[in-house]
Design a protein that fits this description.
single chain, alpha/beta, Nucleotidyltransferase, domain 5, two-stranded antiparallel sheet, 11 helices, 9 strands
Length: 370
């Protein structure tokens, strides 16, 4: 366990190592028996070449620094060669840091970014995320629930909006005594959430509830990239993509390369949205949600007012701004109009009898209606 005493001991040891390095450089030049000319020649030679630093790295030292160390050693001895301890006056008010720690303790799953947003929303200002991370580390509040860092994936980015969407499903909270699942699609270029819907089942009906409105409002992508989950390998999705001219690609099992953006989106959803949501009225520090409809309304509000308008760390633009910039370069609107109608052939199958055309009659679960 790291303590303030351990940190102070490490700093003292480093200071002694620096003092010893400085003394080893100046000990000959500081000889009182040398003339001014002899001392000057030695100091110039020392300043002209590299030396092995106190921690093994090569360093060069200027002549003024050597002269200053010689004067310090003559006046104060070995201890005067050690760098003075850092005197840092805290610039963040103690009450703000205390409130940040209280928010973290109230809900340990909150990240520094989420705590910063809560502080800005309540008080109009917050320390930087890095300041909060250091503060949580000092208080030992920065441990992840699973004790491991998030997985890292390879880099790829589509050249324009609607070149590729990536879809996946995320396990959500228990609402009304039933498990929830989020189906979502993200535009690979802009990182905009093109379609989303929470439901009580991980099936094609809920997948269609997320995808069909996305096609109607965001346009038709050139390609959709999904995994091999049962909802994504169903014949209706392949048939619908064929009708709309969309290339459907499935990732290789156990090889998630190319799915990093949707995984990063789901991490953001967990750390910034789901962390504030609960279906258990006894759980404090979160908003109690009683229905899937309320959950979908809250997620839509978060996506449109927070996620889509905040600068993305990878693109350097907010998703909405990125989509507008991509469209401007291609002389079109921010998103292509949905000129291709979503026919009955793209609707999700159900257990109802098939129609004469051979396609399943679309079904609907009223419990998932927002």
């Amino acid at each position: 366990m790291t303590t303030a005493g351990d940190e102070e001991a490490r700093r003292s040891e480093r200071a002694r190592a620096v003092a010893l390095f400085r003394y080893s450089l100046i000990r000959e030049a500081a000889d009182p028996g040398l003339s001014t000319r002899q001392r000057g020649r030695l100091v110039r030679e020392l300043a002209a070449r590299a030396h092995a630093g106190p921690f093994g790295e090569p360093v060069t030292v200027s002549r003024p620094s050597l002269d200053r160390w010689i004067r310090a050693w003559r006046s104060g001895g070995f201890d005067a060669l050690a760098p003075p301890p850092r005197q840092v006056t805290p610039r963040t008010p103690a009450e703000v840091l205390a409130l940040a720690a209280a928010l973290k303790r109230e809900n340990p799953a909150r990240t520094a970014a989420q705590v910063a947003r809560v502080l800005r929303a309540s008080g109009g200002w917050s320390p930087s995320e890095r300041t909060l991370q250091r503060h949580f580390a000092r208080l030992e509040l920065d441990t992840r629930p699973d004790g491991s860092p998030p997985p890292a994936f390879g880099r790829f980015e589509a050249a324009r909006c609607n070149e590729m969407w990536t879809g996946d499903a995320l396990h959500g909270p228990v609402i009304g005594g039933r498990k929830t699942y989020l189906f979502a699609f993200i535009d690979d270029h802009s990182r905009l959430i093109t379609g989303h819907r929470f439901g009580h089942a991980e099936d094609t009906v809920r997948l269609a509830a997320a995808l069909r409105p996305a096609l109607a409002s965001r346009g038709v992508p050139e390609r959709i990239y999904v995994d091999n989950g049962s909802a994504f390998v169903d014949a209706w999705l392949l048939r619908g993509c064929a009708v709309l001219g969309i290339k459907l690609t499935h990732s290789t099992p156990r090889r998630p390369q190319g799915r990093g953006k949707i995984e990063r989106l789901f991490l953001t959803v967990r750390e910034q949205f789901l962390v504030e949501i609960t279906g258990d009225p006894a759980e404090g520090g979160r908003r109690h949600v009683t229905s899937i409809a309320e959950l979908n309304r809250l997620f839509t509000a978060w996506a449109e007012t927070v996620y889509h308008r905040r600068v993305h760390s990878e693109t350097g633009q907010a998703p909405l701004a990125s989509s507008a910039a991509s469209a401007s370069s291609s002389n079109s609107g921010p998103w292509p109009p949905a000129t291709t109608s979503v026919s009955a052939s793209t609707r999700a199958p159900s257990t109802s009898p098939r129609s004469a055309s051979g396609y399943a009659t679309p079904s609907h679960d009223p419990r998932d209606t927002p």
